[in-house]
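Two folds, back to back.
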Amino acid sequence: MDKIIDSMENEIEAAITQQQIQTGHDYTNIILRTAGKSIVSMREIIHLSAFGYPDGALSLARNIYEHVIILAFFENHKSDNDFGNYVDDYYVDYDIQRNKALQYESKNCTQDAEALTALKNELDQLKQTAHHRVAGDYWWSGSSNFGQLVKAAIASVPDERGKRFLHGLHFTYKRACVAIHSSCIGNTLRLGVDPDFAGIDTSPTIKGHSLPLWFATTSFIYIMGVTYALLNLDYMTHDHDLNDLALFFHQKEQRQSD
């Protein structure tokens, strides 16, 4: 897996240099930033799994899946006349989230009334530049939450087999959310551990590694496919190798579940 990721990273980097792609607020940079973040996350997942922490790996795989849904949304709307509005609002949301964090700091940490007022004015101006109503974490897509975005992504798949596959990915996402959520005391829900176990076990384990590796690899396949298409690179060999790995991890998980 490491060799595949290293090879892909080198090819993407070379293509960016050769094509002289510049940093900017466009869809190209959304794809490339997503690819870069996913490559880093994949390396972290591999190391966590290798050292016996599959729950930690699963929490990172969850993030890669979220990137899949976001990219799928953009890919499904690329032919829309107002596609640029989605891209613009995606970047506006970054500034809004940053502004809200700074507002919290000014109000509760530094207690700087002047800075708080300036930030509130800036937030009002940011909202005025948005093409969609600013409400919820995924307002830029026209959805108020991630669940709505997932439903839209699944609905866009034309065949039932594809829909079931995405439902399976989303079920794993839900399992990952439960496994790390503090209100569920997530670290008691160890992968591959006796479900009747009632204690808190944070020790390394030799079981349960295949689920986060399958989840991450399957999600990574889509992200890299979009990235390679953007850069006009040949994805066939990497696609074949990653799918073989995903199948291997899936079969391994099934054997552990039996």
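---
second:
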Amino acid sequence: MLEHGPYTGFLMSMSLLKVLDYICSKISMLSLVVMAGITFADVFGRVFFNSPIGFAYEVVGICLAVCFYSGLYHVHKKRKHVKIDLLEKIFKGKTGIFLAWFSYIIEVVFFSALVYMVYIQAKESRLFGDVFMFLGLEKWIILAVMAGFAMVALISLLVVYPDNNQE
């Protein structure tokens, strides 16, 4: 028998995609806060104590990548990415639907290639033993996390396909 805790109803009422959206958005926000905090501490230390944080550049770069890839889930799901929609007013009906699907397929192919390339980069980084200079952390671990977030973003892209009801 399942115990009913404070989050049992919350998690059971949500689909897997909603849980992924929730987790990715919280990770994205947390990475932004960490990035801002590290940047502030680095500049503060540099200006007032003439001693910057040595690992700040690496942590900010990692946080930027985490924020980008974890935030892509929401961007794809809501179809809120940057796009040129000047021709949407001109092409309506079947032509508009065809163009929407054509651009969607190109987007899926491109993003699938991106996921694959990040995965391959993680494998090569592990093979060569790349390590961050100040953190001492192996780079393939971060790249594998980025590949995971990119895969989650690809899933959100695949489940939100173009609307066929263009007027």
